Please model this.
Amino acid sequence: MKKLYIIRHAKSSWEDSDQPDFERPLNKRGEHDADKIAQKLKVEKVSPELILSSPAKRALTTANIFAEKLNYPIENIVTDINIYEAGLKELTSVLHNLENTSKNVMLFGHNPGLTSLVNMLGDKPVPHLPTCGVVGLKLNIESWEKLERYSGEIFLFEFPKK
Model:
């Protein structure tokens, strides 16, 4: 059995319209929401063995906030460019290639790919994964390469406006 936490980055800033998408930071609300949701996971005693993130600034900053709150070493966060602007095919490929030693994994990225991933893996529909939304899946697999459609049971769905 494995657990996968799929987390969409928190609210980002659109203040500088000339800023490249990849470099957009979190806004104040995003920072607050990330701290709030990470605290909820800490109370639930969530303890990731691996944090995997898109290297885009808004996703990585969200991952850093969660890591700090959950006592995960920030320097151990793994970034993968394949998560940025990824669709279902790229996201499943990233997950299929994970080391099997990691049983509890957090994946930080972007929509619409993450919502598609949740709906492919989960046992009930999630119409939209909001910013800083977290879906926790219990996966009935022993190996990440065995991950397939409907192999997960959604046990957690948290988001800031819940």
In short: The domain at 2-8+27-102+113-158 is CATH 3.40.50.1240 (Rossmann fold). The helical segments are 28-43, 57-69, 88-96, 113-121. The CA atoms of residues 51 and 57 lie 15 Å apart. The longest strand covers residues 2-8.
